[in-house]
């Protein structure tokens, strides 16, 4: 693929610092996805490349660039302030997932992106992760541990929490959400998975299909850093053989509607499980336009409940920017 983005690069100086230059000509990239959530991936083991928000947006443009919901730069954690802070917590987090949304804005975390990121590291020979083995990585949402499974990867996404805990506890709802295609605003529940989500339950799949996600839904009150919005329909019956099933569509901050959202799938399962009550299961299947991911709740460190996200990761193409 020919790519005409003018992206500054950095070459190491004698002191080990980086000096910006004007072109990324010859830089290798890959394109990957996790259940349709797709990314441009760049390996930067020497921290030689700095990409501006405008350049990320160009690379992720589906008409004039490579195309993707976001861009992931694989860089050693020691080169970034956020990464160095995480290394003090867990020295095993040698690699950092420097993730940007498709519009170039920074994002704390992306659950599908984590799986694709680790698969990319493995494919590039930057790590050697066999089935059943675990890799620790750094993200802006904290340290994440990723296990390679037979059919993909499973990620300990860490603890979940309500963004507005008092309102969620007393009302089970904390926001009103309006979107094109819905006649009236619907109540939602705001959940943090290291990044913010607001989950809205709908009664029918026809309602889910009719909801228009070309532009961002309006959330009131909106979390301080904005929010991703998930519209979810519980299956009927909700639980079979101890596993809950839901169907979801999502509008992601800085991206628009995507085929899948890993942290969104976790947040959706959190909300539906909360609404379903104490008898709700810990294992969930979340159907998204790009496929199905698994969500599992389990006790974590410090007594806080953690969420595991599992699913496939695929590298579909590789190339060089020119």
Automatic annotation (TrEMBL):
Record localization: Cytoplasm
Keyword Cell inner membrane: no
Catalytic activity: (2S,6S)-2,6-diaminopimelate = meso-2,6-diaminopimelate
Enzyme Commission number(s): 5.1.1.7
Biased composition (Polar residues): 1-12
Active-site residues, record numbering mapped to chain: 110, 261
Residues of the site described as Could be important to modulate the pK values of the two catalytic cysteine residues: 197, 252
UniProt keyword terms in alphabetical order: Amino-acid biosynthesis, Cytoplasm, Isomerase, Lysine biosynthesis
Positions of region (Disordered): 1-20
Pfam families xrefs: DAP_epimerase
Enzyme class: isomerase
GO molecular function: diaminopimelate epimerase activity
Signal peptide: none
Pathway membership, UniProt: Amino-acid biosynthesis; L-lysine biosynthesis via DAP pathway; DL-2,6-diaminopimelate from LL-2,6-diaminopimelate: step 1/1
Source taxon at top rank: Bacteria
NCBIfam families: DapF
Function, as annotated: Catalyzes the stereoinversion of LL-2,6-diaminopimelate (L,L-DAP) to meso-diaminopimelate (meso-DAP), a precursor of L-lysine and an essential component of the bacterial peptidoglycan.
Family: Belongs to the diaminopimelate epimerase family.
Designated name of the protein: Diaminopimelate epimerase
